[in-house]
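so my prof wants the structure for this chain in the tokens format not the other one, which i didnt know existed until like an hour ago. anyway here's the sequence
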Amino acid sequence: MIIIDDIIEAVSDADFDVDYKGIITILKAAWTTFGIYNATMIWSNSESSLARPAVRLLSFNAILVVLITIYKLTREEIAPLFVLQCLGHYSNFLVFAALTGFGSHPKIKKGKRGDRRISLAIWTLHLLYAVVLVLGFLWAECAEGNVYPISFVMSDSLFLVSYVMLLYVKKRGFDINDLNDDDDDDTSKEDLELFEAQVAVFFSQQRILVIWHSVEMILGYVLLNQFFEEAVTCDENNDAWVFNFKAGKLFLLMHTFGVKQSLGVASKVFCKTVKKLEKKRRKEAKKKKE
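here's what i got, hopefully its the right format
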């Protein structure tokens, strides 16, 4: 701490204009990206059919983390924030798409969509996200009397719809408690255990995000537009928000934090769940030896 204080004092004496908030933002992003890199390394050496999709998705999330950091260091315009939010939702959806297409469940045809219902749900959501991303970007403008663009409502609503659809697919396609006779071996049981753990973590995170993004919509579309019109206003170009009170700034932080929470789902599903399960299995094996 003494060394850091000396550096700060030296910079102050030299009359450098240092943005400490920006430095902290960059350091936090670097730490997050490093964590994603470690998770990627775990899967890059795996022979699992899920390895390649997991690495690609984690890499995609790392890029989004960098983009969020750049966004926080700029004017913080509305359209880029919408794009980041929508891509964060899409990243969540891709986690489930990877699990159902390449996961460790013994019934999954590796690399294929083995069930037409799953295939229809997955490709429908791909299309919907593409449409919402394009239209939402075009409509992401601030206007007097409508500070919160309809774009964010579209994005959050699609997230809620996708949650319901994915929950339906899970209940109809993968709630299987027992295996066939030909799958009754240790490897299949371990695969099933991993799949069920990953799906459980995924949906537990989705339930949290459902609450979070619902609050976002209520705050933005109802409270800001109808009751607290002076808290957040439009800038002269109508492409960015002006925060007149601290509550308005908190509103923006809710959105950026929500995006980060969405991007954290992949790491929890593909990294933390695997590590936790491996640790559990080592303890069980140790007990058996004793």
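also thought this was worth mentioning. The mean pLDDT is 79.
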